[in-house]
Design goal:
The protein is α+β, with helices and mostly antiparallel strands. Helix content is about 30%, strand content about 25%.
Length: about 850
């Protein structure tokens, strides 16, 4: 095929280019794809909106259809949007408008609709000529300050008007309301979240720019769907926040209602997000008719304006668990595929949780900076005018004479400018001043206004010149939005109980967990250790690596959740069974395989718990005697990478942790044998990341050894064990309460024989003790075998140590557990006989 240009007029031939067809098609398709990606299908990371939603809201704002106005016909809104900003089909605009009004589609609807806007049954909205709408008040937060040069503008499609390229967005709408869309070769599917949680995470990022994704997940628990329901497990949520992608299982909320007649029923009250209720019920009915699902005799939809209620009536004596599992497998659970894809500077990017919030904060910085600059300009202009008026007031007689003597206004202005060096703007206002403004009251008002404007200028200059002040303004405005619009979570988390897991295969038993200074860890059944007499050497509890020593021993159930606190103030969470079970003589496994420990970080305290009570706190004490109380609920969601439990001063370390309920006393024991007891209410409960208050005064060579919690009527004893293997029991009643931050009372003598205090525990006589030495010897004795004596005594031999070995740690086996073990052993012996 010839590529020669045919005979054409010269002026036409100059414009003709020879282009390969495949090259032109490729470039045209790329241009089309980018137009769809950037101009239609993907939201902007800054305001979380696609162009159609942004244009609808701006058209409503421009027309004054705000939350304080009356509702306007949707056809009017659609017509304004299409005619001025969005030259596409009116139905696509109306669909976007209707979705912003649906409380089952948007976590926080941006449009207040009046009329039929569709339903969870898949019913479409009524025609736009029948429905009415106005902006919801929260949508106005997206548009706040848009007229203060806070965002860039662009020409509309026919160059008649200007439209914003992005909205100021006073809250992170991309995460709050989510988004979904299909572009060319890519798609986005961002779930909605709780406004309060997202704002808290944003504030965390303001206060701590180095916050990790795990720190932000302390606030953002997971998606919060408008239809409620339950998220199954947390791993997928964590993956989505860390990588921008994940598959989240969402399960309906339901309960099995047992009835005396034997005909049970399943009540479904919440459905997974974007589930069509009518179609789901239809499919369940088809499965029953086809025999795929057995045991259902009736299916009713009793939903009303108050919420969803689907009743599944079971046949007489049908197995509810079987029917429930069949429904779960087919209809009551669906997967939400998270793809956190948004436009960043016009380019599509998959974003992590932190990246999303960082881009939003960058946007808010720009908005607040430009708004402050705009307000500063207006304030300076007003101050300039007021300065002129004040000068005129100070020279009122001369100003009046000049104006009276002038032939016209222009001459008066020229004379005033020559006499007082006024600007054109100032002199214009002066010649227009009324005589009434010359009164002393009017003059005072002008002076007050000038003072206010001057203060405003100083404040705005501070904001523009100081990044921290700018961020404080953003933080304050975010918290105002939170106070106004935040609500409780609708979506809950449940554990995945449908599959057989490793946990199901592990028997429940009491175990001893041993941790060394170099963070080797292992567990052993408590039953391996028979109770011995006081003063024994114990048996080998571990083959300790050369240069390593045991630092901690504690008892737990194999299915307990363990909160592991470290010397650096971090806390980690894991199940006991995740600690590898090994023989007595085994060294153990490095804890870094289980927990993300830093160099030099050691486990110093462990709390065994499954669920905390609402009124419980975790009371913590450091080596230097600082005490901190934090609500236990702050430790509900802890990843293996850990979170900060308490802020420590340089050189300080976390030593011990106790669970308290606000009614206990704290007894802090020191290495030099002192002990102080005070009411825990003297330590105000605060959040994590605080350093606490002084709990005990320490002499130069002293440090905290441990802490116990006790009540006024506690009949237990305080067990004190020293470094060289000596110890004693003393009634808790002998430790009288004092005020916080004193030296306390003498608890035990720490001379050359005893050595310093290693451990303190609250024990009952029937309790058993597990004592482990630094070189790996372990023994189990009865608490009653240790003499009960008064304070300020030497104690008796508890463990016979060899060489330079020392007691490393002591833990308590409660009497109920000890008796249970004894009963099991007796039963086994009887069976053997």
């Amino acid at each position: 095929m010839s590529t020669d240009t045919p005979d054409l007029p010269d002026e036409v031939a100059e414009r003709v280019q020879n282009v390969r067809v495949e090259d032109e098609m490729e470039q045209s398709y790329i241009d089309y794809a980018m137009s769809v990606i950037a101009g239609r299908a993907l939201p902007d990371v800054r305001d979380g909106l696609k162009p159609v939603h942004r244009r609808i809201l701006y058209a409503m704002h421009r027309s004054g259809i705000t939350s304080g106005s009356g509702h306007r016909k949707c056809s009017n809104i659609v017509g304004d949007t299409m005619g001025d900003f969005h030259p596409h089909g009116d139905q696509s605009i109306y669909d976007a408008l209707a979705r912003m009004a649906q409380d089952f589609s948007m976590r926080y609807p941006l449009v207040d609709g009046q009329g039929n806007f569709g339903s969870v049954d898949g019913d479409p909205p009524a025609a736009m000529r029948y429905t009415e709408a106005r902006m919801d008040s929260i949508a106005e937060e997206l548009l706040a300050d848009i007229d203060m040069d806070t965002v860039d503008w662009q020409s509309n499609y026919d160059d008649r008007l200007q439209e914003p390229t992005v909205l100021p967005s006073a809250f992170p709408n991309l995460l709050v309301n989510g988004s979904s869309g299909i572009a060319v070769g890519m798609s986005t599917n961002i779930p909605p979240h709780n406004l309060g949680e997202v704002i808290d995470a944003t504030v965390e990022l303001i206060e701590n720019p180095d916050a990790t994704i795990e720190d932000l997940m302390d606030h953002v628990k997971g998606p919060d769907f408008p239809t409620g329901a339950n998220i199954v497990g947390r791993n997928a949520v964590h993956a989505a926040y860390k990588t921008g992608r994940g598959r989240i299982r969402v399960r309906a909320e339901f309960e099995v209602e047992e009835r005396e007649s034997g005909s049970d029923r399943i009540i479904i009250t919440e459905l997974p997000f974007q589930t069509n209720k009518a179609r789901m019920i239809e499919k369940i009915a088809d499965s029953v008719n086809e025999g795929t699902i057995e045991g259902i005799r009736d299916l009713r939809d009793e939903s009303d304006r108050d919420g969803i209620r689907i009743v599944v009536e079971l046949k007489q004596n049908a197995m509810a668990e079987v029917v429930k599992n069949q429904l779960l497998e087919r209809y009551l659970e669906k997967t939400f595929g998270v793809i956190n894809l948004a436009l960043v500077d016009g380019q599509p990017q998959v974003l992590t949780l932190k990246e999303t919030l960082v881009h939003y904060l960058d946007h808010r910085k720009e908005v607040v900076r430009r708004r402050s600059q705009y307000e500063l300009g207006e304030a300076e202009d007003r101050a300039h005018i007021l300065e002129g008026r004040l000068t005129a007031l100070e020279n009122a007689d001369d100003v009046v004479d000049i104006i009276q003597d002038a032939e016209d206004r222009d001459e008066a202005k020229a004379e005033l400018r020559a006499a007082y060096d006024f600007s054109e703007e100032q002199v214009e206002h002066i010649v227009r001043m009324q005589l009434g403004s010359l009164t002393s009251m009017e003059a005072a008002e002008i002076e007050d206004e000038y003072d206010d404007v001057t203060a405003r200028i100083e404040r705005l200059e501070t904001i523009l010149g100081d990044e921290s002040e700018l961020l404080s303004v953003i933080k304050e405005e975010l918290l105002e939005v939170k106070d106004e619009y935040a609500d409780d979570r609708r979506t809950s988390f449940i554990e995945n109980t449908d599959e057989v897991t490793r946990e199901d295969l592990i028997p429940e038993e009491d175990v001893v967990v041993v941790v060394t200074e170099q963070d080797y860890v292992k567990r052993m059944p408590v039953a391996q250790f028979d109770a011995q007499n006081r003063g024994g050497k114990g048996i080998i509890g571990g083959d300790i690596k050369e240069g390593d020593r045991v630092s901690k021993v504690f008892r737990a159930n194999s299915h307990d959740y363990l909160l592991c606190f470290t010397n650096q103030g971090q806390v980690y969470r894991l199940k006991t069974y995740e600690v590898p079970e090994m023989s007595r003589t085994a060294r153990g496994k490095s804890a870094v395989n289980l927990l993300d420990l830093d160099d030099g970080e050691e486990i110093t305290a462990v709390v065994n718990t499954d669920d905390f009570e609402d009124d419980e706190c975790l009371s913590m004490v450091t080596r230097r005697g600082m005490v901190n109380r934090t609500d236990a609920s702050d430790f509900d969601n802890i990843l293996s990478t850990g979170i900060i439990a308490a802020r420590l001063e340089d050189g300080d370390e976390l030593v011990d942790v106790e669970v308290t309920d606000g009614t206990t006393d704290l007894i802090i024991a020191t290495q030099n044998g002192m002990a102080i007891r005070f009411d825990e209410s003297e330590v105000t409960a605060t959040g994590r990341r605080t350093k606490g208050v002084n709990g005990v005064k320490l002499r130069d060579d002293d440090a905290v050894a441990g802490m116990v919690a006790a009540t006024d009527d506690d009949d237990r004893d305080l067990l004190t064990v020293t470094q060289n293997g000596y110890g004693k029991r003393t009634s808790l009643s002998e430790y009288r309460p004092q005020s916080r931050y004193g030296y306390g009372l003498v608890d035990i003598k720490t001379d050359g024989r005893n050595g310093s205090v290693t451990s303190v525990e609250a024990v009952a006589p029937d309790d058993h003790l597990v004592i482990m030495s630094a070189d790996g010897q372990i023994m189990r004795i009865r608490a009653a075998d240790i003499s009960e004596v008064g304070r300020n005594t030497m104690g008796v031999t508890v463990m016979d140590l060899e060489g330079d070995d020392t007691v490393a740690s002591v833990d308590v086996i409660p009497s109920a557990v000890a008796r249970s073990e004894t009963a099991e052993e007796d039963e086994l012996e009887a069976t053997d006989d």
